[in-house]
Amino acid sequence: MASKGEFSSMKKESEEGTESPNAKECALRELTPPEIVDQLDQYIVAQKEAKKAVAVALRNRWRRMQVDDGFRDEITPKNILMIGPTGVGKTELSRRLSKLARAPFVKVEASKFTEVGYVGRDVESIIRDLVEVSVALVKDEQQQLIRERAEREVEEEILDLLLPGSREAPAGGDGVAAEDLLSHEERPVEENPTRERLRKLLGEGKFEEREIEIELSKPVATQMQVMGPQGLAEIEGQIKDLFTNMVPPQKEKRRMKVKDARGVLTEQLLESLVDIEQVTELALDRAQQNGIVFLDEIDKVCGKESSSKGPDVSREGVQRDLLPLVEGSTVATKYGSVSTEHILFIASGAFHISKPSDLMPEFQGRFPIRVELESLSAEHFYRILTEPRNSLTRQYQELLAAEGVELAFEDDALREIARLTEEVNRTAENIGARRLHTILEKVLEELSFSAHEKKGTRVSISIEDVKERLSEIVQNSDLSRYIL
Question: In a designed cystine with 287, which of 6, 134, 217, 275 is the match (CB 3.0 to 4.6 A)?
Answer without folding.
Answer: 134
